[in-house]
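seq:
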Amino acid sequence: MTRISRLRRLIVAGAAVLLGLTMPGSATAAVPSTTELAYYDVTSAATTTGGLAADLNRRGYDVLEGSMTNGVPILASASDAQRLRRGGLTVRYAGPLYQPVPASFVAAADTYYGGYHTAAGHETHNAAVVAAHPDLAVLRTIGSSWLKTQGSGGHSIQALCITKIASGDCALNTSGSKPKFTLMAQMHARELATGELAYKWIDYLVSNYGTTAAVTNLMNTTELWIIPIANPDGVDIVSSNSTSPVSQRKNAHTNGCSGTGKGVDLNRNSSYHWDVNQGTKCSETYPGAGAASEPETQGIQGFLSQIYRDTKPAADFSAATTATTGTFLTLHSYAELNIYPYGWTNTIAPNNTDLKTIATAMGKSNGYDVVHGDGGLNYFAPGATDDWIYGTLGVPGYTIEVGPSSSSCSGFFPKYTCMTSFWNLNLPAFMSLATAAARPYPTGS
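struct:
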């Protein structure tokens, strides 16, 4: 953990105590009296923390990212916590899943939980941006959600291209002259802050072209692609309760499981190092029936393969060339991490020096820890999108885990007012990664 991260977390935790907030990581938090989901820390006198995390994950518990200082963090019901205690483990309540939404709150059109946008709200926003800025934005359909492929409603997967449009720009091919930066959000539907950051990034770009030099130069020279909602069916499930969002991580693929057990974890479903052992059907990390089995995954991989040039040999540990252009970022929450390849192994990636240099530059702006492998995550993530784009095409792929591990701004469902601080921290990181798209591997090592 960086000194900046430690200091920020201590300040946030101290402020929360003064304000009387209940939060993950709070030793004085009250045990919930209901069966609703909450955050817990699990420890064992007989097992190392890492071994316990792996065991809980194998057993289907919702093991979370972030620090294991207080034990293995999980999201579970009170009955799950009791079951673990009966099994000889120590389970400490760490905080509530939800932050209070005022009883008087009435969601504006296409919003929920204090201001977060629904999938339909993002689609309306995308169309409005293109209509208002035809010289700066193009909207593409890149795939379909699972429900849409079944003829049961669902959504198209949308990608917005933002640049000062010239001939050949924003085409679905690799022949364009501008390097590409893609930001993708809400692949895990319950990670609300990520979709909002994508929404704000779109607005920031189009509203600052011609007035802010750094943005103007970036849009003149780079195609900035945004997939604001990678899992729209899942977001529909999440947003179906306006004040207490449903904790749906996966897509909506019917698999015989009830509740949030339904679906496939799209961030374990890529065709790169897909691992059948990542989870059983009803677990949060179920990777699907096969590699790239889900239409969302197929659409996203197909799109990225269309716009990025392949500069890397097929072998895992063969380096991408210095001629590589483009960068990729997928947003997740929560753990305050900047993650660079690989995530399926702790073995150093062949372009490690350059990959880490970019991640370190991101960390200087948002203060998040810079990690790879299972560092900071409590587990490996085979089949993840950021590894797929690097391992398959050579394009440097990154994940930012947005949000702290404590305070009212922690967890999957932070107060909407937290978006201001998330945005201010991560905007410079977005700009840094987008700027690196022109020449991501200057040393080739």
